[in-house]
Design the sequence.
């Protein structure tokens, strides 16, 4: 007996007020208990599709059918800024419309499910990135959803956290739809893919594990490209003949007219090869050219071990071309350490005078969300008057003209990440301090970013839980906070 369909999109069309179409007569269905991946390029509208499923956005045309008795909950990518000042208990209370007398018992249950151990009176802002990722999942689970929507759930999770999440999803007996750029993670439990094509504005459905589906998509693209190449050759050949016969007169002119019609028919048979599989261009982060000697000296660091703060004296000096990886499990204070390094009040680290610091924060706190994209890029420029160069750099990161006038807050998380890299290119820093720079980034961009960091001539300090990314970068040393 076929499983029950619990979610259906029937020829759904949706666009924002500013006339940016995301879906055009898109149709798909989801069966009860399915474990699906939602794929699509950064900015294609994956998070907006989740909002349509939740009913927060409404389609212009078409029908979205969901059983009214079903509970839908989402584990978002990031904690909302207005919630960072809440305690963990207060944050969970927001999941309910009324006071829950057994709230702490429910909280304890879902925190065990996601392997999160923090006091419920601790402020959300005091949690590490990995702890916040677990908190977001627990917040969704406490609502006991029939459909669980996961938006980049592995961001900031260490290896143990990802393994725990995989085992949880394998055992999860309800419906789950996941947005993620972590291919290995997706392949462990995915049984199908919903592909949001940002060119055709359709949603394609594929069955199979993640790697098989990606291979199927790539094979289809190759076939489409070959078919188009053959048609283009035939079309050009016929056009040449049409031009030749059209000037001959008589029967030749009639033949030219017939061939012109056949050529138009061939052009109509051209397949619309998906164009959303774009990868950012190869790029270089120019290093500040007047830096010499000791760029940064670290003499003392503060970390968390077993929930208690510890201070350690160390000796770390970075020069030009030095690359240091900071490692350790979630909750040890890696992000706090990087944030303190770029703070002028930090007494445990000294950055040489005049060194420009390119800081990439995992929560994008280095960006002004109220600025336009144009002003954010312009503010990072060393070549202050070269707007053409600025736009060229931005285009290399898929940030094109139509995005420039929007506020940074309008961008998807992936686009904010690409904007951050564009700013680093324009900034020409002497020191890169990078906290989880692959979060939210399409996996196709990862090798390009790794190569740019390998070629960077300044000093670099990096935190990343993406093992495949780390393995592509040549590090001089590793600062392991767990075994310091």
Sequence:
């Amino acid at each position: 007996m076929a499983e029950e369909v619990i979610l259906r999109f029937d020829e759904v069309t949706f666009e924002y007020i500013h006339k940016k179409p995301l879906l055009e007569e898109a149709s798909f269905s989801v069966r009860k208990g399915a474990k699906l991946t939602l794929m699509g390029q950064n900015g294609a509208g994956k998070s907006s599709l989740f909002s349509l499923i939740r009913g927060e956005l409404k389609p212009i045309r078409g029908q979205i059918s969901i059983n009214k008795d079903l509970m839908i909950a989402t584990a978002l990518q990031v904690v909302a800024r207005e919630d960072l000042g809440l305690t963990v208990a207060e944050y969970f209370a927001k999941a309910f419309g009324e006071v829950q007398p057994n709230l702490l018992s429910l909280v304890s249950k879902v925190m065990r499910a996601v392997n999160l151990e923090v006091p419920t009176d601790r402020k959300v802002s005091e949690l590490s990135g990995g702890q916040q990722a677990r908190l977001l999942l627990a917040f969704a689970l406490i609502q006991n959803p029939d459909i669980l929507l996961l938006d980049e759930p592995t961001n900031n999770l260490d290896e143990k956290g990802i393994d725990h999440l995989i085992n949880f999803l394998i055992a999860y007996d309800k419906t789950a739809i996941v947005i993620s750029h972590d291919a290995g993670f997706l392949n462990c439990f995915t049984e199908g893919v919903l592909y949001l094509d940002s060119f055709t504005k359709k949603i394609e459905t594929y069955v199979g594990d993640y790697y098989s589906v990606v291979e199927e998509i790539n094979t289809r693209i190759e076939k489409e490209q070959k078919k188009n190449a053959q048609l283009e050759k035939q079309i050009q050949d016929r056009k040449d003949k049409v031009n030749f016969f059209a000037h001959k007169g008589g029967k030749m002119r009639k033949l030219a007219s017939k061939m012109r019609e056949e050529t138009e028919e061939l052009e109509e048979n051209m397949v619309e090869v998906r164009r959303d599989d774009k990868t950012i261009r190869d790029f270089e982060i120019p290093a500040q050219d007047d830096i010499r000697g000791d760029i940064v000296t670290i003499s003392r660091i503060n970390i968390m071990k077993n929930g208690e703060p510890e201070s350690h004296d160390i000796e770390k000096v970075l020069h030009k071309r030095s690359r240091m990886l900071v490692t350790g499990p979630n909750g040890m204070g890696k992000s706090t350490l990087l944030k303190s390094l770029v703070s002028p009040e930090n007494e445990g680290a000294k950055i040489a005078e005049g060194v420009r610091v390119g800081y990439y924060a995992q929560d994008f706190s280095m960006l002004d969300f109220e600025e336009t994209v144009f002003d954010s890029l312009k503010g990072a420029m060393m070549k202050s008057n070269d707007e053409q160069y600025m736009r060229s750099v931005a285009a290399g990161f898929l940030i094109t003209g139509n995005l420039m006038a929007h506020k940074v807050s309008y961008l998807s998380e992936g686009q904010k990440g690409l904007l951050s890299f564009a700013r680093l290119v324009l900034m020409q820093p002497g020191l890169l301090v990078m906290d989880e720079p692959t979060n939210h980034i399409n996996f196709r961009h990862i090798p390009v970013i790794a190569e740019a960091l390998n070629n960077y001539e300044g000093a670099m300090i990096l935190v990343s839980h993406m093992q495949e990314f780390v393995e592509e970068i040549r590090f001089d040393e590793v600062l392991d906070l767990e075994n310091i």
User: Anything to note?
Assistant: DSSP finds 15 helices and 17 strands in the chain. The radius of gyration is 26 Å. The CA atoms of residues 37 and 193 lie 5 Å apart.
